[in-house]
Amino acid sequence: MDTFVKKLVEKATKKAGNSSEGLKPEELNPRIAFHYGIPFGCSMFAYDSIQKILAIPTKDGQIKLLGRDNTQVLLESSEIQVTKFLQFIANQGILLRVTVKNQIEVWDINRKMLAYVHVFGKEITSLTVMQQSFFIYVGDSVGDIAVFKLDQESYNIEKMEYRIPFSASQGNSDGARSDNRVMHILPQPKAESKRILLIFNDGSIVLWAIQESKVIFKTGGKTQSLCHEHKEVTSACWACPFGSRVVIGYSNGELLIYTIPSALELITDLTTNKDSCTIQNATTSKLNLGYKSEKIPIASLKWVSLDGKATRLYVMGASDDISANLVQVILLDEHIESRTIKLGLQLPEPCLDMLIISDSTETSKHKHEFLLLLGKSGHIYAHDDHLIEKHLLQSQSRSPPLIPREVKLRLPFPDSSITSAKFITKNSSWLSSSDEDFIQVAKGIPPLLPSEAKQIDATGFIGFSKIKNLYITGHSDGTINFWDASCPIFLPLLSIKKEGEDDSSSTGLAVTAMHYTGDSQLLVSGDQSGMVRIYKFKQEPFSTENNLFSLQGSSKKGNHHAIQSVKRIKINGPVLSINLDCSSRHLAVGSDQGYVSLVDIEGATLIYQKHIESDLSAGVISLQFENFRLHGFEKNLLVVATRDSSVLALDSVTGEILSSSMIHPKKRSRALFMQILDGQERKGKGSNIPDTPESSKGVFVGDGTSMQLLLCSEKAAYIYSLAHVIQGVKKVCYKKKFGSSSCYWASTFCSPSSQGLILLFSSGKIEIRSLPEFSLLKETTFRSFNYSPPKPNSYSDSSICSSLDGELIMIRSDQEISVVSVLSRKEVYRHLDSFSQVFSKDLMNEGLTSVNVTPKEKKGIFGSVIKDLKGSKTRHGANEGPEDVRASSEELSSIFAISNFPPDDGHENTLALEEDVDLDIDDIDLDDPGDKPKGHDGLPSLNKQKLASKFQSFKGKFKHMKVKNEKPVPWEEPQSEKAGAVDEIKKKYGFPSSNETSAAANVAESKLTENLKKLQGINTRTAEMQETAKSFSSMAKDLLRNFERDKQNS
To answer: Which alpha helices (DSSP H) does 855-993 contain, by range?
Structure first.
């Protein structure tokens, strides 16, 4: 040994020259190629009910979109900002996001990018998108409401001239109010383009008429409070399909239902009180659900009505403590005040938000809805709304149904967590399969959302040979699962359970290490008890007697069609590392207690067991076989790395320690990774097939002078000469400290030109460095993956593994999978567009004709009166039916384009004046029109836009002329002489004389007199209509009182 070491040191001290060729930055593009599941730090929900897209923003500026057929995409803003509001412009592929910096972001979902950012000058307190339009209401902290319009082509949002100032909506109600925040802006159902309900922080409720630009109903606020208890509005929603009831939740836990005027009452009040709004104490109902007694604020309210059945109100309280009353469902019916039917949903944690989503199956005749609840931990829970409705309706019966339980949305993994994983790619093109194969594979992908439940087409598993990419996971319950990772959403292939074994004490223990070789058809696993299992698979193709295995538990006979034999051997301590020498058929196993064991695979017999002494932690985290050659000398090495960052070399045949001492840094930290570097081109590099005998044994082209050893720990990375490690001499060739940030995972990868090092840090940063110099080539930060260190006596929620070609699979608990690619190979992911296309252009025109459903007319005497009073839709509009979306949008565009209030401080009001505008009295049309437009009956048809613009221009010109005329003149000619001279000049150049001009003026005066007479006639007809409306109103109220009296008597 001494002679060998002496000659070894003499040769190894002469370093081989570094090659100029190596890993280049242009070869690298670290990125998340695909994200599946629910990201960390979710904060709220948004939903497009037509496209069936669920949006979930995170606290670090990401937005996860979940669409139909498992389509998913993760959007990421350049700035890390918390989301305040999130809302879709339905069926248009547009998502609006308001950040804490009061920036309105416009996201293009089809192109998966941020299209526009508008900086709002005030604090945004509410955001509402008008249905089936591109208009956006924005409420602020001072009580004003601004209107924006989104441009469909540029995706920019334009601020309209129309606005609702606080002084107009509240009048002189209370000048001393310090908090005027607009908390909710709710367009009234069936009249979204006509009226909006404004709810302020103090509880004031204002119904605003858009066309008339005034308040038509006002209630709530301090005038409705019976005591001086401080409360603020925290949530609100409509509780009626016609907009006649609204539910409001308060910070003190109070729940109130307000009655909002119906369309018929609004017609009457607007006719009799043209210039004033109805300010009265609206009918209110109080819901006592226990929130007020426990001082739990009402965080969210959702109302559900299906096919005319009993309506339900979901109520969610905001609390840090788990309570049975945090989420409740109540049945809304005519007996709500006397008898409240409610159900408390038991949840494992407090919630942040809730949402109602509908079933996306087109074959279903009835809508099937689900309640989604977002827990504070980021988990999403689903409840079947149909089961909840069934329980509420039958809760008073003798045999009520069971209380429905929630289902947690999770990855399609077993209930146990992943404790070990391997990722094997068999070629450099991950998704190189044909489109037909890809579509066939995609059919078997299990859904994530409950509303998309579908039957998986189980075709059976016949072997690994046709699997492009194989992902193997070991779990905390001892189960080993095989997955097809040919597409980013993994398909289950085979599940191996440790059932029916002689040693029953080892069942149910976590799998801590695995090793797989495809050519040898071997899988070796080790568990927490020290049990090593050697699985030998049968020759392919496997028998297809059994179909796709259920991950919830396979039978004892379920693995027999794939597994030929299982051999077991037990070592000292939990297994941490496994490696196989394919040439000698020897297996090296490292344990947590510092034992290195060499096992013969054929007989599952122990050849030797060596204990590694260590001052700190002797757990063997890595083992590697190496055939070391140096000018005629050859040694079969087994290089060992321990948890305390110590390395040494053994003779793999005898187990003799070759190193005179262990090599380790001065300041030790937990070791993460160890790898022997050849310094030259590896045979077969780039083939990404790690299971050949040469690659497993470590045979390289060249001698041992260029061999180096890479050791990565939490605090630094080191390059040692392998020759010095064998000698026991500490000589660091290269070193890289990581600074304040700790590294928690490391691995090497192969590119077509060279090798590289991947480093993942606890901050989410990823670094790509060259080898062996540790030069930084690329770095980026992954917000979607957050590492949490494992608790004592437990395993980490995070699992990371990589293939030889730089493909990473990062899994966080049972919530999300991040597929990361390091190399810049765009052709590899050509199929990913199908999975990330959540927006469907084919659905753009769906849902527009069936969104509003005309309600059935009420029967009886009162219903007949309403039928007589409502007349045609164009005459009254008392029966608000489906609105013409295009006509309403065009009408609103003209209304919102004109300023309805004079500008105040801080309000920009730009008026574009035409250069040459002639004001013509013919712009006023006072003739009786044939077909009156909707909402303008009995009033003169005015071209408002044209008249307003001309009037402004005329006013400006008149002001300019007045200023010029005010200048002093030196003298004036006699009027008669001046007029005569002017007439002669006009006649000379072909212009009419003063007499002719005065004749034209007389004609205009005559026409004006005629129009005045018409106006007087209109006023007379208007007065008559007012009297008629009063009589109809009085009749309707009398009938209503009689109807209520008859109902009480009966």
So the answer is: 861-870, 885-896, 944-965, 975-988
358 pLDDT more than 80: yes
pLDDT over 80 (residue 855): no
Residue 468 has pLDDT above 50, yes or no: yes
The side-by-side arrangement of strands in the sheet containing 298-304 is 298-304, 311-317, 327-332, 342-344
**CA–CA separation, 82 vs 40, rounded Å?**
13
Of 1, 12, 3, whose CA–CA distance to 654 is shortest? Answer: 1
Query: What is the C-alpha to C-alpha distance for residues 523 and 421, in angstroms, rounded to an integer?
Result: 12
The model's confidence at residue 751, banded by pLDDT at 50, 70 and 90, is confident
SS3 state of residue 583: coil
Q: What is the pLDDT of residue 829?
A: 56
* pLDDT at 427 (0 to 100): 55
How far is it, in rounded angstroms, from Cα 89 to Cα 67? Answer: 15
Q: According to the model, what pLDDT value does residue 903 have? A: 78
Question: Would you give the DSSP letter of residue 13?
Answer: T
Q: How far is CA 692 from the centre of its chain?
A: 43
Residues 828, 76: contact at Cβ < 8 Å? no
pLDDT for the residue numbered 460: 58
Burial of 124 (0-12, 13-18, 19+ CB in 10 A): buried
Neighbouring-strand partners of residue 468: none
Cα distance between residue 327 and residue 376, in whole Å = 14
Phi-psi sector, 488: left (phi>0), alpha (psi -120 to 50), beta:
alpha
Both tokens of 39, joined, read: 């990201």
* Bridge partner list, 329: 314, 343
Backbone angles phi, psi at 532, to 5 degrees: -110, 130
Shortest CA distance to 449 belongs to which of 418, 421, 416, 408? 408
**Cα gap 561→862, rounded to integer Å:** 74
Q: Angle between the 994-1049 and 975-988 helix axes, to the nearest 10 degrees?
A: 90
Position 224 scores a pLDDT of: 47
pLDDT averaged over every residue in the chain: 77
Q: Looking at the predicted structure, is the pLDDT value of residue 1032 above 90?
A: no
Q: Euclidean distance between the first and final Cα of the chain, in Å?
A: 111
Nearest to 11 by CA among 519, 476, 872, 703: 703
- The number of residues making up the chain comes to 1050
The yes-or-no verdict on residue 988 having pLDDT over 90 is: no
Tell me the whole-structure pTM to 2 decimals.
0.77
Contact residues for 297 (Cβ-Cβ < 8 A; gap 6+): 234, 249, 250, 251, 252, 253, 291, 317, 318
- Dihedral (CA of 405, 410, 413, 418) sign: negative
Phi and psi at residue 217, to the nearest 5°: -160, 140
**Contact between 269 and 282 (Cβ < 8 Å):** no
Sign of CA dihedral 979, 985, 991, 992: positive
What integer is the mean pLDDT of 979-1005? 56
What tokens does 958 get? Answer: 């008149």
Q: Cα(87)–Cα(157) distance, rounded to whole angstroms?
A: 15
Reading the block at residue 978, the tokens are: 């001046």
* 951 three-class SS: helix
149 forms beta bridges with 135, 158
Asked, as a colleague might, if the bond just before 665 is cis with ω within 30 of 0, I would say no
What integer pLDDT is reported at residue 519 of this predicted model?
A: 81
Query: Rounded CA gap, 643 and 666, in Å?
Result: 15
* Nearest-angstrom CA–CA distance, 841 and 241: 29
Q: How distant, in Å, are the alpha carbons of 8, 531, 818, 1012 from that of 507?
A: 48, 10, 31, 99
Q: Which residue from 330, 344, 345 is spatially nearest to 382, judged by alpha carbons? A: 345
- Single-letter amino acid, residue 879: N
